[in-house]
Amino acid sequence: MEIGIPKIRVDAADKVTGAAKYTGDLEPRDCLVARVVHSTIANGRVVSIDVSEAEKVPGVVRILTCFDVPDIQFPTPGHPWSVEAAHQDVSDRKLLNQRVRVYGDDIAAVVAVDDVAAARAVRAVRVEYEEYPACVTVDDALNSSAPPIHEEKPDNVLVRSALSVGDMTFDEAAASEPDLLRLEKTYETQTVQHCHIEPPVSHAYMAGGKITVVTSTQIPHIVRRVIGQALGIPWGDVRVVKPYIGGGFGNKQDVLYEPLNAWLCQQVGGRCVKLEISREETLANTRVRHAIRFQVEAAVRPDGAVVARRLRADSNQGGYASHGHAIVANAANCFKQLYRDRKALEAQCRTVYTNIATGGAMRGYGIPQADFAAECMADDLAALVGMDPLEFRYLNCMGPDYEDPHTHVKFNSYGLKACMEKGAGFIGWKELREKYRGQTGPVRRGVGMAIFCYKTGVHPISLETASCRMLLNQDGSVQLQMGATEIGQGADTVFIQMAAECTGIPAGRIHIVSAQDTDTAPFDTGAYASRQTYVSGKAVKKTGAVFKRRILDYAAGMLSRPAEALDLRGGEIVDASSGAALLPLGEVAVTAFYSLDKSVHISAEETSHCKENTFASGVCFCEVEVDIPMGKVKVLNIVNVHDSGVLINPKLAEAQVHGGMSMGLGYALGEELIYDGKARPLNPNLLDYKLPTVMDTPKLNALFVEVPDPTGPFGNKALGEPPAIPVAPAVRNAVLHATGVAVDSLPLTPQKLVERFTQAGLI
Amino acid sequence: MYDIERFYRAKDVPDAVRALEADPDAMLISGGTDVLIQTREGKLAGCSLVSINQLPELTGIRIEEDGTIVIGGAATFSDITNNKALQSRIPILCWAVDQVGSPQIRNVGTIGGNVSNGVTSADSASSLFALNAVVELTGPDGVRRLPIADYYAGPGKTVRQHSEILTAIRIARADYENYGGHYIKYGKREAMEIATLGCAVCVKLTEDKRRVDDLRVAFGVAAPIPMRCHETESKAKGMALDADLLDAVSQGVLAEVKPRDSWRASRAFRLQLVSELSRRALSRAITFAGGEIHA
Q: Where are the annotated coiled coils located (chain B) (predicted)?
C-alpha cells in the first residue's frame, strides 16, 4: 500500500539544502533586466510619455510604452479555454495600457543591462495624464458620473446574475408562516493579497524562432496559450517552462507578466530579458482576493429551522476582469449549498469594475467571503432564536443527500456532521459555551465555530482534463510526467504514491519530472480549484493501469505465460495467484529496450476527462481571549476538522491544513489592503500589510474524518483550498461569544474592535 | 542590487567626521536597516554613504566610575538586550529594544540609528526619554552633549549636524538607581512591527514603598516626536499606590499627548491606547520598583 502513508516529500531535501531550482536559479548569463513603469493615477488616460531623459541613463537598452504595444486585448485568468465564444474569458487589457484603470497600471517598460539602470530610467520617465475621478468602492463605481472604466461596460457592471431555489420567492416564504423571526444584516469582507514568498518572476528568450518563457506559475499550459493570444502568435511558437515555485495561492493562477516579458524579449531581438516583480508591485499591481459586500435577510422559525434566505452580493472587481464574476457566482453557490432553506433562497450578484487592484483567484475562490457571510449569519440566527450555534447547524446544515439543484454537485461521501462532532469534542464546546457565559471584566474568553463546503475541481462549470505519462527506464525505474504542477503543496509526492499504488512499482523507483515544459509535458490545466489529487489523480490511475498492462504483456512474452496470470508487485513480476516472484522488473526493462528480437520502449500516456465532482466539507472551532481595552484577540486554541475523503499522505494533508489556517487567521485578524480616496494603495508592503508572523500564530490543530469518496481515484476529494475557508468566521463568532459584540466586517483589527466595544459600552 | 553611488568605510570616528565634511551629500550608514530600505525604495537612490558600521569605539557598553551608563552609538539592539550590566541597571531599555522588528534586525540595527532617525515610533526612544538619557555627538568641533528631549527637532529630524556622529548615549546613576521601569510596545502583531503606540514608565518609590517619589511617563507615536508627560508626572509625586494613582495617570496623560489621525490608527484609538498602556506600564513599573498596588 502506498496510499495513506506519511511519505516524506520527494523535494524536501532539495528544498532544504537549496539544491531545488527556482526560476531565478535558471537565468542565463547576460540576461537583460526589465522594469515596469506604473501609472501614478488610478483612473484616466495616458496622454503622452516622454522617455528622452530615461533613454540617456547609461545601461538602458530599450524603452517601450503603451503606444508601442500590439492592439490586442487578451484575457488573463487561469481557466481552461472555452471553444464557445460566449463562455470565453473577458479580454480587457493590453500588454501596456493607455487607458489607466488601476493606480500603478502598467504603462511602459524599460529594458536595461541591470537593475540599477532600469530603476533609474523608470524614475526618469515623464508621463502626462488626463485624470478621471477614482472609484474605490462598488458604490463609487455604480454612482460615478465619471467615464466608464471599460467602454464595453458603460455602467461599470461586469456581470449580473441571479439564482433561486424553491417554489416561493423570499418575500412569499417570509410571509407564509405567522411567527417567523427575521434577520437583516450586511457582512463585508476586505481586499487581501496572497503574499506567496516568491514574487512573480520570469525570463524570456528566443531560439529557433520560438519564445521560451521560464516562469513562476501554477498553470504553464494556460500561460502558453495566453502569451500566444496576447502577442498574436501561434500558441505552438511559445514554450513555457515552470520550475519549482515559491507559492502561488491563486495569484499565479493568472497570467500576470509573462506576456509582457515575452513581448519585451521580442522587441530586443530575442535576447534574454528577466522581469522580476517586487513585493510592493505584487501587493499593488498583481491580483487580490475580491472584497465582497453581502446584504442578507433570513426568516427562521422559533425552533431554529431556516425557512428562507435572500442574498445580495456585490463584488469589487478592481480595474480588470481577470477571474471576474466567477468568484461571486461561486460565493453565491456556497451560500446556497451550506444551509437548507425550507422554502426559498434568492441570490443576486454583481461584479463591478472599480479602480483598485484587480480581483483574481485566491485560495477558496469566493468561498472564504461567502463562508464569512453564511457563518456569521448562522451564529446571528442562532442568537436570535436562543439556540446553541452547534445545534443550529446540526438542524440546518446541508445533509448527506444534498445535491445542488443547478450544478448537480453532491456529496458522494459525507463527513460534515462527523467533523462537527469531532471538532466539538476536541475544543470542549459544551463546557466552554457554558463556562464563558456572562463574563465581566476587561479580559474575556469565548468559543466559536464555522462550517463550510467546497467542490472538488470545476466540473461542470468548466472543463476538467488531465494527462499523465509514464516511461520505463532501462533499470526498471519509471519516469512519471504530469501536466499537473507542484506548487509547494506536495503534488509530486502524492502523484508518486498514486503511481506506485496503481502500478505495483515501489515509490522509490518512480522519478517524477517536477518541472513542466509545455513542449514536452502532457497537457493539464494546472494547480487550482483543489483539483489535482482528484482530477489529475484520475489520470495517474488510468495511465498506471495501461502502463502496468504493457509491462505485463512484455513479461508474458519473456516468460511464455499469459499476461492475465501475472501481476506486478513490489517491483517484481509475480505469479498472480501464488504471488511467487518470477522476474525482476529491471530484467523486463533491459530486455524490452535492447532485445534484438522485439525492442520496445514501454510507455503509457492517457488523458482523463473528468466529468464528476464531489463536495468536501469541514469545520473550524476556536477559543479566543479578548483584551477589550486593547482591542486584541488572542487565539488560545483552534482546530480544523476536514472531510476530504481518503488522505493520500496524512503528513502533507496536515501541513496543507496548517497553511490554510494560518491564512485564515490573517484574514480574520489583520490582513487588509487599504486604499485612499484616489484608489492609491496605502500599505503595499509587508510592514504595513499585517500578515501574521509565527509569533502571532497559535498551535494549529488539524483533524480529519476519512470517509472514502467513491468518485475519487483513491477515495480522495478536495483539500487544497478548504483549510483557509472557515477560520475567519469561527474567530468572529468566538469574539461574539466572548463579548456579545457581533463584528460584521473583516478583519477584526484592534481599532475596529475598540470602536465596537466602545459603542457597546464595554470600554 | 542597491543604487549606491559612493561608499566609504571609515577607519575611526575622526575619519568618519572628515569623510562627512568632505562630501556634503554623504550620509552615515551603520546597521543599514533604514538606509538600505530607503535606497531600495529609490528615496536614497544614488546615495553616497560613509559607513561607521561596527567601529570598535562605537559598539562598546560601559559603566563609568560615577555609575554613568555609556552605550556606544553603534551598539546593536542585541548587544543592549544581552548586556549584563544593563540588564541589572536599566532592564526597561534591554526589554524595549528587544521589541524591535525581528532577531535579524536586532542583530544589526543600532541604538544610535534608532534615535537619529528622529522618528516618534523608535522603540528605544520612549525608554530613553523616561531615563533622562543624554546624547553625545562628536563632530569637527569636538564633543557636545544634550538631553535626549533636546535632540529631537521634529518628525524625522534631529539637531545633529551633517558632520556629527552620535557617538554615545549616557544615563546618569541618579536617573536609573532605585527606579522600576517598564515599556509596552503596542503593535498590531507580535513581531516585524512598528509601534502603533509605545509607553515607557519609570517610577521611584518612597523608602517605605507606599508612595510615588518620582514618576516619568514617556510615549512614542503620541505626538510628532517622542514625549514626556511632565504635568501628570508631577501630580503623581507623593500619591499612594492605589487605584486613584492609576486613574490619575491614565487620565492625566490624555491632556498632554497629541496623537494624530492617520490610516494606520485613528486619534481616538491612540488615545485609548495612551490611557490603557500608561495604566498597565505604571502597574508593572511599580512592581519592578518593589511596590504593590492597593486597588
A: none
- What does the alpha-carbon distance between residue A316 and residue A306 come to, in Å, rounded to a whole number? 29
Q: In which residue ranges of chain A is CATH 3.30.365.10 found?
A: 366-459+612-759, 465-609
- Structural element, H or E, at residue A13: helix A12-17
Same domain, B144 and B191: no
DSSP string, A665-724: HHHHHT----B-TTS-BS--STTTS----GGG----EEEE-----TTSTTSB---SSGGG
Q: Is residue B294 part of a domain?
A: no
Q: Where are the beta strands (DSSP E) in B140-211?
A: 142-147, 152-154, 157-158, 165-171, 179-186, 197-205
Q: Cβ of B191 under 8 Å from any chain A Cβ?
A: yes
Q: Which of A119, A696, A749 is opposite residue B45, by nearest beta carbon?
A: A119
Which pairs count as long-range contacts for A56-60, CB under 8 Å and 24+ apart, including other chains? A56/A124, A57/A112, A57/A117, A57/A120, A57/A121, A57/A124, A58/A117, A59/A112, A59/A113, A59/A114, A59/A116, A59/A117, A59/A118, A60/A110, A60/A111, A60/A112, A60/A117, A60/A118, A60/A121
Domains of chain B: total: 3
**Residue A403 grid cell:** 445535491
Say if B142 is an interface residue toward chain A (CB within 8 Å). no
Q: Report the CATH number at residue B11.
A: 3.30.43
**CATH of A465-609 given 3.40.50.2000, 3.40.50.410, 3.40.50.970, 3.30.365.10:** 3.30.365.10
Q: How far is CA A604 from CA A471, A478, A479, A485, A522, in A?
A: 7, 11, 11, 19, 11
Residue numbers in B near A630 (CB within 8 A): 186, 273, 276
Domain made up of A366-459+612-759: CATH architecture: 2-Layer Sandwich (3.30)
| Residue B188 sits at the chain A interface (C-beta within 8 Å) | yes
Q: Classify residue B295: in a domain, yes or no.
A: no
Phi, psi of A51 (to 5 degrees): -105, 10
Q: What is the mean pLDDT of residues B278-293?
A: 97
Cα torsion angle, A150, A151, A156, A159, sign: negative
Asked whether residue B61 falls in the same domain as residue B168, the answer is yes
* Angle between the N-to-C axes of helices A537-559 and A491-503, in degrees from 0 to 180, rounded to the nearest 10: 40
pLDDT (average), residues B246-261? 98
- Assign residue B193 the CATH number of its domain: 3.30.390.50
Domain housing B252:
181-288
Domain A12-132+200-276: assigned CATH number:
3.90.1170.50
- What pLDDT, on a 0 to 100 scale, did the predictor assign at position A297? 98
Among candidate residues A118, A76, A117, the one with its CA nearest the CA of residue A95? A76
The pLDDT score that the predictor gives to residue A145 is 83
pLDDT for A651 equals: 97
Q: How many CA atoms lie within 13 A of A248 on its CB side?
A: 32
Mean pLDDT of B103-110: 97
What mean pLDDT comes out for the span B206-229?
A: 98
Helix (H, G, I), strand (E, B) or coil at A408: coil
CB contact under 8 A, A674 and B190: no
Residue B295 has pLDDT above 90, yes or no: no
**Separation CA A691–CA A196 (nearest Å):** 11
Which residues, in sequence order, are CB contacts of A709 under 8 Å at separation 6+? A412, A413, A614, A645, A646, A715, A716, A717
Q: Amino acid identity, residue A666?
A: G
Chain A CB contacts of B265 below 8 Å: 751
Q: What is the pTM of this model?
A: 0.97
Segments of chain A scoring below 50 in pLDDT: none
CA A472 to chain centroid, in Å, comes to: 34
Question: ipTM score here?
Answer: 0.96
Residue whose cell numbers read 548615549: B169
Whether residue B105 is found in the same domain as residue B134: yes
Q: How far apart are CA A263 and CA A211, in angstroms?
A: 9
